[in-house]
Amino acid sequence: MKFKYNLNDIPPFPELVLFGLQWLAIAVPTIIIIGNVVSGLQPGDPFFRINYLQKLFFLTAVILLAQITLGHRLPLITGPAAVLLAGITASQGTSTASIYTAIITGGLALFILSATGLFSRLKNSFTPRVVATILILIALTLTPLILNLIVGPGTSTTPLANLLFALSFVILMFVANRFLRGIWKSTLIIWAIIAGTLAYYALFPETHLVYTQNLNPVSLFFKDLNYNLTFEPGVIISFMICFLALSINDLGSIQSLGELIQPDNMPQRITRGISITGLANVLSGFMGVIGPVNFSLSPGVIASTSCASRFTLIPAGIFLLALSFFPSVISIIGSVPSVVTGTVLIYIMCSQISAGLMLAFNPTTGFKFDNGLVMGLPLMLGIVISFLPGDVLNTFPPALRPVMGNGFVVGVLSVLIMEHIIFKEQKNTDKKALTQ
Predict the structure, then answer these.
(1) Closest CA to 412 of 181, 238, 207
(2) What is the pTM of this model?
(3) Going by C-beta distance under 8 Å and a sequence separation of 6 or more, which residues neighbour residue 116?
(4) Residue 426 CB neighbours (<10 A)
(5) For the chain, which terminus, N or C, has the lower number of CB atoms within 10 Å?
């Protein structure tokens, strides 16, 4: 594919800024959505939410700039990892320090695996059926969280009104996705957040805009760092499984973009990119925020704009860095109603399911009955565990609760057992049959 600007080209300054603003419009919605969700899961006042978002903006900016200049050096956007959101959601009831200690541990393990070359051996365990199941599991195991955002007790209007609003809103998003083209389609999420927020406040005027008063116009936010490391084995095991999925997500994002723009030294780019992702998660754990990952939506943006220059992400990183020091601005752009957040998450998770199904129904390999069994059991177990009542989870031993009570972890372990143990002999038989 030919591009107007190739990987190492620097567009003229006006175009550089415009492309940077486009990447900014793509990065901000995910930061706001996941940041609002995670900060809402942790105890704290409105100032805590703003401080959390500031840290998340700062971390995303630093890692984005590091990846472009030192890491994979590809035009890949970075943002909070949804798979870690699944881990944090399932670890409620444990201490915040233990969660971020587990993120530090997982990030360090990922860095060591990548830097030493051991990750290349580990990734062979993640076959297309396993990866497809993981992609779908992320969406399905976040369903209880999405449901609580839309009709939970913290919402201001009646559950029925919120549900009707969410259904109408998500259908309109898919209509827009069907007919929009180019930059408008690439930035649909941010326009949906703006339109959905304005519509919700207009339809339900009793809902008050959440704006934190008495904020300094500019502030430093390097406080409340997580130096209280708390190692809980169950939480660490749970997040190690999440980091396995995160590493495959990171690898897939880098490889998919590599196939599009065909850069040189792809093995080195993958090693550097995943290594920096690991270090970024170590940093995020110390800062007390959810860790980042490279997003897989970048190839679509590049194909629609015909610009593959990595330098266009530098203005986006600078804008994100500047925003992180203005809490009043973040307070305004972060005042998205939980119903809108939940509805946009439905849209995003539908894309996640679509990616998983595309991988599962690969036309070159086909889809067999055994494929459905390998994927079906983990998906069912993940859903069942995710919807277990709280009083049932409380009967589990505390050490096992972060693992056995985490639908995503149970699903990933199940698909690995189904793929590499239960159906391993059948795969070998199939190979012999093909050679005869």
Answers:
(1) 238
(2) 0.79
(3) none
(4) 11
(5) C
